[in-house]
Design goal:
Helix content is about 10%, strand content about 15%. By secondary structure, the chain is an alpha/beta fold.
Length: about 180
């Protein structure tokens, strides 16, 4: 797992002087154009490392978990095979439709809609600008507080629901919902 905060170049090469770091950044721009991160399984990019999102998503052949919260991202690349996406605290207006995603945590963005993704189990989408939640068969956990929702779809099998701080007029009876 690659895990870092702040400037990646400075994180790895912190022993260099600022002018050397600048040159290293120039080299990394060329490197990013040609690198194939085919063995990376989990990638965590936090605290404004927006430049790494410029990578071609096709290089992430084995990436299953992407944690890119608290950057200033306006979009997420479509990475085939991704299972878990943590992208809270960005400036996203949409989430890519990635088949096979099991968990999305996308709170504190500017989302107006969530894609209908078959097989999604966990959706945490609080504090956005959502007016509706898609009916996702098999969804187990839905946290959608602080949006502009007027209704919640009846999702059979939903175990956990937090939909407070919305404009709901009613909540459907959902069998199996745990308090």
């Amino acid at each position: 797992m690659l895990n870092f905060h702040g400037d990646l170049i400075e994180y790895i090469f912190g022993f260099l002087h600022q002018h050397e770091l600048f040159e290293m950044r120039l080299v990394s721009i060329e490197f990013k154009k040609h690198v194939a991160l085919r063995v990376l399984y989990k990638l965590k990019i936090t605290q404004e490392n927006i430049h790494l999102m410029d990578l071609n998503p096709k290089v992430f052949k084995k990436l299953k978990i992407l944690h890119c919260s608290w950057n200033k991202l306006t979009q997420i690349p479509h990475i085939e095979g991704l299972k878990v996406l943590y992208c809270s605290g960005n400036q996203l207006t949409q989430i890519p439709h990635i088949e096979g995603l099991k968990e999305i945590q996308c709170s504190w963005n500017q989302l107006t809609q969530i894609p209908h993704i078959k097989g999604l189990k966990i959706l945490e989408c609080s504090d956005n600008q959502l007016t509706q939640i898609p009916h996702i068969k098999g969804l187990e956990k839905l946290t959608c507080l602080g949006n502009q929702l007027t209704q919640i779809p009846h999702i059979k099998g939903l175990e956990k629901l937090d939909c407070s701080k919305n404009n709901l007029t009613q909540i459907p009876h959902i069998e199996g919902l745990k308090a």
